[in-house]
UniProtKB/TrEMBL annotation, chain A:
<keyword id="KW-0472">Membrane</keyword>
<keyword id="KW-1133">Transmembrane helix</keyword>
<dbReference type="Pfam" id="PF03703">
    <property type="entry name" value="bPH_2"/>
</dbReference>
<dbReference type="InterPro" id="IPR005182">
    <property type="entry name" value="YdbS-like_PH"/>
</dbReference>
<feature type="domain" description="YdbS-like PH">
    <location>
        <begin position="115"/>
        <end position="177"/>
    </location>
</feature>
<keyword id="KW-0812">Transmembrane</keyword>
<feature type="transmembrane region" description="Helical">
    <location>
        <begin position="73"/>
        <end position="91"/>
    </location>
</feature>
<protein>
    <recommendedName>
        <fullName>YdbS-like PH domain-containing protein</fullName>
    </recommendedName>
</protein>
Automatic annotation (TrEMBL), chain B:
<keyword id="KW-0472">Membrane</keyword>
<feature type="domain" description="YdbS-like PH">
    <location>
        <begin position="82"/>
        <end position="159"/>
    </location>
</feature>
<dbReference type="InterPro" id="IPR005182">
    <property type="entry name" value="YdbS-like_PH"/>
</dbReference>
<keyword id="KW-1133">Transmembrane helix</keyword>
<protein>
    <recommendedName>
        <fullName>YdbS-like PH domain-containing protein</fullName>
    </recommendedName>
</protein>
<dbReference type="Pfam" id="PF03703">
    <property type="entry name" value="bPH_2"/>
</dbReference>
<feature type="transmembrane region" description="Helical">
    <location>
        <begin position="27"/>
        <end position="46"/>
    </location>
</feature>
<feature type="transmembrane region" description="Helical">
    <location>
        <begin position="52"/>
        <end position="76"/>
    </location>
</feature>
<keyword id="KW-0812">Transmembrane</keyword>
Length: 235, 182
């Protein structure tokens, strides 16, 4: 079974000028089977067709249709607002601005959710989003620094989680802040502000995923990251 | 309660003293505050004798509150200690913390920028160390740490991390065939 990792290694060694025998030796010493090594060399000399890559070693392309943001996420901020307002009313406090925020969230969230698309393509992780102005961001797997999975209290009760991918840019992705995704990236603020959806700054945040969807997507991303290391410019 | 297990945690376990240290850290401020209040009350009421019993109730109240705070913090730290999960898998490092709001960070070895070990004052008293690692993002530096290990575990973790990172970023690295999962 051909494997992207071994193919990348062979390519870089050949580019450095290593002979085929040296490469074969190092690989068999590392524990690779002979036919795997041969197959990898063969796939390099002939154009690689998708069928020659075993599905067990290459992650499949998934997008938000496979692991969608749950509909429950639409109601997360409204529910929190309602709960806080009710509790506050019991103590005699009234927060009018919270109640105003409620219908805004109920309208904005479904729109945001409907317009949010992501896809784990071969070379990049692609995110397309935007209700009024559209934006698209491509993240090469090699530059992904960390993968976060987290749940706040609401998430735990309802079994959803947020997935966050970070790269090393300071304010990449054409950083702009809009009122509906003015999240601070980490906590879902108690006053009903929700964490940002999609890309902002150095991260891509996908909230409201079902817990096992988040885990599955994380596994796919990690697999992709492993198969797509940063190509060193042979020094 | 059941402790989150992993191969790495067996080899480099968290120290149980961590629970004590975190409890002390969390309650120290409260203890000092309440003791000051109690001291002030004792001094203010020492002059008059009629308020003797009232002072007794206040004492019980303050110490009862202190005891309750310590108990709650201790139980929370016990829970935190049990749920704390970290694992150095062949490809990446997974650290998962937080009993009520779990947060999990996964860093591939190739992205580790540094490994940093430190002790604060209470750590020194208890003999504990914190191992921090970070990738190129600020939040990884804040989230990715294994704190409350004793010296052998801290040294072992640091050595293992550095060695694995070295192997991974080495240009001579020959990829290893995928291991069969047991």
């Amino acid at each position: 079974m051909a494997n992207n990792e071994i193919i990348n290694y062979i390519k870089s060694e050949l580019a450095k000028g290593e002979s085929k025998e040296t490469i074969v030796n190092s690989l068999s010493q590392a524990g690779w089977q002979n036919n795997d090594v041969q197959e990898a060399f063969n796939s390099l000399s002939s154009p690689v067709s998708p069928s020659s890559i075993s599905p067990q070693h290459t992650a499949e392309i998934v997008n938000e249709k496979n692991y969608p943001i749950t509909k429950l996420w639409i109601f997360k901020a409204p529910i929190i607002i309602i709960v806080i307002s009710v509790v506050a009313l019991l103590f005699g406090y009234y927060f009018p601005y919270l109640v105003i925020a409620l219908p805004i969230y109920l309208i904005a969230n479904p729109l945001i959710r409907a317009n949010f698309h992501y896809s784990t393509d071969e070379k990049y992780f692609t995110v397309r989003q935007g209700v009024f102005s559209k934006k698209q961001r491509n993240l090469p797997y090699g530059v992904i620094q960390n993968v976060f999975v987290k749940q706040d209290v609401f998430d735990r009760i309802f079994g959803i989680a947020s997935l966050r991918i970070e790269n090393a840019s300071q304010a990449g992705g054409g950083q702009k802040v809009r009122w509906w995704n003015k999240g601070y990236g980490s906590k879902s603020n108690a006053y009903g502000q929700q964490e940002g959806v999609g890309s902002s700054g150095n991260k891509v945040n996908i909230p409201g995923l079902k817990k096992n969807s988040a885990e599955a997507l994380k596994a796919i991303l990690l697999q992709r990251m492993k198969e797509n290391p940063i190509e060193e410019l042979g020094l | 309660m059941r402790i989150a297990q992993s191969e790495t945690r067996d080899k480099f376990p968290l120290s149980t003293k961590k629970v004590l240290k975190k409890t002390v850290m969390g309650t120290l401020v409260w203890a000092i505050l309440l003791l000051i209040i109690w001291g002030v009350l004792a001094f203010a009421l020492s002059s008059s004798t009629e308020t003797g019993s009232w002072f007794g109730i206040a004492t019980i109240g303050i110490f009862g509150l202190l005891f309750l705070i310590i108990l709650i913090v201790y139980l929370y730290q016990r829970w935190y200690y049990a749920v704390y999960f970290y694992d150095l898998t062949p490809d990446y490092i997974v650290i998962k913390k937080g009993p009520i709001t779990p947060r999990e960070i996964t860093i591939p070895y190739e992205r580790v920028q540094d490994v940093y070990v430190d002790q604060d004052l209470l750590d020194r008293i208890f003999g504990l160390y914190d191992v921090h690692l970070s990738s190129a993002t600020i939040s990884s530096g804040m989230e990715a740490h294994i704190d409350g290990v004793e010296k052998p575990a801290a040294d072992g973790l640091r050595a293992m991390l550095l060695q694995t990172v070295n192997e991974r970023i080495s240009k001579k690295r020959v990829p290893v065939p995928p291991q069969v999962q047991q």
